[in-house]
Amino acid sequence: MNIRETLLRERSKATCDEIVTYIGEDAQKLDELMQSVLSPEPKLSEMAAWVVTSLTDRNPGLILPYEQAMLEKVKAENNHEAVLRNFLRHWASFGFSEKVEGELYEFGFQVLEGPHSIAAKAHAMYVCMRVVEKYPDLAVEFKILMQEVVEKYGSDSAGIRSRGKKVLKRLDKIISSL
């Protein structure tokens, strides 16, 4: 199977599942998929990011070797929002290594402050929260941002309001134990 051609052929759950099954845990096939994700072609990158999400839902550790490249990809300015959303979803759900946590925390902050989708902001909350739980001294700073985000977007988005309240509650608990 040529993963690139398959990705560009059709956008469907069946195609996504076909590629996930084909890759399995094969590092060479995974590398081919990751080259598509990291591609400058927006449509290819978007489709491949969806497959990465499905793949890592089954085996989160597979993409650990690509963590830095993924972070560089989402920080680039010409990405499709789906790439950002899918990578943030992965990091929010499954975590990340120490070597990218500082950069990822800063990037999560930027997503929360910037003009990104509600879904990206919701995932960025949990990405940042993972770092704050490890480094509680960041809690006060993050709480200020979270209050601003909930105030600004909470009335328009039930997801931001709900997730924001949960994060703020966890932050209050961390701050009270400092």
Helix content: over 70%
Query: What is the radius of gyration computed over CA atoms, rounded to a whole number of angstroms?
Result: 17 Å
Main sheet record? none
Bulk shape: elongated
Structural class designation: mainly alpha
Beta-strand content bin: under 5%
Number of separate helices: 10
Distance between the termini: 54 Å
Residue ranges: pLDDT <50 for 5 or more in a row? none
| Global mean pLDDT | 94
List the secondary-structure elements in sequence, H or E: HHHHHHHHHH
Number of DSSP E strands: 0
Count of structural domains: 2
Molecular structure report:
This protein is 76% helix and 0% strand. The chain is mainly α and 178 residues long. The protein has two domains: 95 residues; 83 residues, no CATH class. Helix 4 packs parallel to helix 6 and helix 8 packs antiparallel against helix 9. It comes from Jiulongibacter sediminis. This is HEAT repeat domain-containing protein.
What's the arrangement of secondary structure elements?
Layout: H1 3-9, H2 13-23, H3 27-37, H4 42-58, H5 67-75, H6 81-94, H7 98-113, H8 118-134, H9 139-153, H10 158-176
Helix pairs in contact: 2-4, 3-4, 4-6, 5-7, 6-8, 7-8, 8-9, 8-10, 9-10
